[in-house]
C-alpha cells in the first residue's frame, strides 16, 4: 500500500485537486508534508513548482502558512519556486497573500525579484513585486544584491531577458552598478545585439531624465513668474491701473505703426468717408462753387 504522504505528493504532481483535498481531510497532519529527500519541499512548494493555483489556494485556506512562511533547505519560499518556473498566476497569488515574503532571500542572497529577472516567462512579475504593498519594506528593491553583489539588472542581462532590462531601468535600476567581481550588468550581455540594445536603453532613459529635469526647471520658473505677477497686482494702490496703462501704450503703439503720415495723405476711395486733405486756404476758395442766382 502506498504511503499517504507519497500519495499526496503524487496527487500534487498530477494536479489532482480533488484527490489532494480528500487526502488532507483524511490526514490533516499531512498538510505541510515536507519531503526530506527533496530539499524538504512542502506541499505548497510542490504546488507552486507545478503551477497549480487551485491546490495552492486550498493548502493556504487549510492553514499551510499559518505559522510561518515555508522554506526548503535552500531557503527558497514557494513564491521563489513559482517565479523560477514561470508560473505568474501562482506567484502573484502567493505574493498578494503574503507580501512580507517578497523581500525574503535564499541562501545565495536572491529574492523573488532577482529570480523573476532570470526567467523571461516571469517578467510580468517584476512590476507587481516592486509595488506589491503600500509599505515600502514589503516591496522588492531594484538595488538589492545577492551574496556575489549582483543586482536584478545583472541577472536580467545574463539571462538575456530584454523586457526585464527595460522594466528594471524604468524602475530606477543603476546600469553602472558593479558586483563583487567589478563587473557591470552590461558586461553580462549574452550577444552583441543584446549589448547594443542595453546601451540604447541606458541612453534613452538618461535622455528622458535630462528632459524631465529641464521641464521641471521650466515649470518652477513659470510658477515663480506667476507668483510675482499676482503679488505685483495685489501690492499697493494703482496696480490695476498700471497694467491698463501698459495695455493702452501697447495699443497706441500698434495704431501709430498702422497709420503713418503717408497713409493720412493718401486720397480716399470713392464712397469712402471724406478725409481732411492737406490743402492751402487759397486753393480751398478757388474750388468752392457759388450758388446760382445769388450775389455771393
Could you describe the 3D structure shown?
The protein is an all-alpha fold and 296 residues long. Helix 1 packs parallel to helix 3 (43-50), helix 3 (43-50) runs antiparallel to helix 4 and helix 3 (43-50) runs parallel beside helix 5 (78-84). It has helices spanning 4-13, 17-26, 43-50, 53-61, 78-84, 88-97, 112-117, 125-130, 152-159, 162-170, 192-234, 239-258, 261-265, 281-286. It folds into two domains: 1-73, Alpha Horseshoe (Serine Threonine Protein Phosphatase 5, Tetratricopeptide repeat), CATH 1.25.40.20; 77-218, Serine Threonine Protein Phosphatase 5, Tetratricopeptide repeat. 53% of the residues lie in helices and 0% in strands. Keywords: ANK repeat, Repeat. InterPro entries: Ankyrin_rpt (IPR002110), Ankyrin_rpt-contain_sf (IPR036770), Dendritic_Spine_Reg/Scaffold (IPR050889). This is Ankyrin. It comes from Polychaeton citri CBS 116435.
Draw up the topology in text.
Layout: H1 4-13, H2 17-26, H3 43-50, H4 53-61, H5 78-84, H6 88-97, H7 112-117, H8 125-130, H9 152-159, H10 162-170, H11 192-234, H12 239-258, H13 261-265, H14 281-286
Helix pairs in contact: 1-2, 1-3, 3-4, 3-5, 5-6, 9-10, 10-11
Brief description of this entry?
By secondary structure, this protein is an all-alpha fold. It is built from 14 helices and no strands. Mean pLDDT is 81; it is low at 236-244 and 250-296.
